[in-house]
Amino acid sequence: MLITFKCRAAPDVVMLENLAQYLVGIVGKRLGERGVIMHDELPEAITKLESAISSDKQERAEHDGHFHEGEDGHEHHEIPIGLAQRAFPFLDMLRAAQKEDADIMWGV
Predict the structure, then answer these.
(1) Does 52 map to a domain?
(2) Sorted alphabetically, which InterPro entries does this protein's record hold (predicted)?
(3) pTM of the prediction?
């Protein structure tokens, strides 16, 4: 199922429900049928998401050292997309909403 986040400060952001649930959970909300991130909640939400992205990047950097690219006997491993890439449109919306004191809604 697709979830569409709406905000007057940014274009709609559409994502799969499992990713939406994960990202909304990071910022301290629950993904219900309808929901809102109020403009006064945005600074904390942005901080939480940026922190999660930073942690993910650090873990990925540590893990990337375990790939044996080009070594004999080891197959090529495709590095999965990280949280930074998956979360960028949502984070961009959070930042735009904060600049304009706008709320972010879904399920409307």
Answers:
(1) yes
(2) DUF1840
(3) 0.82
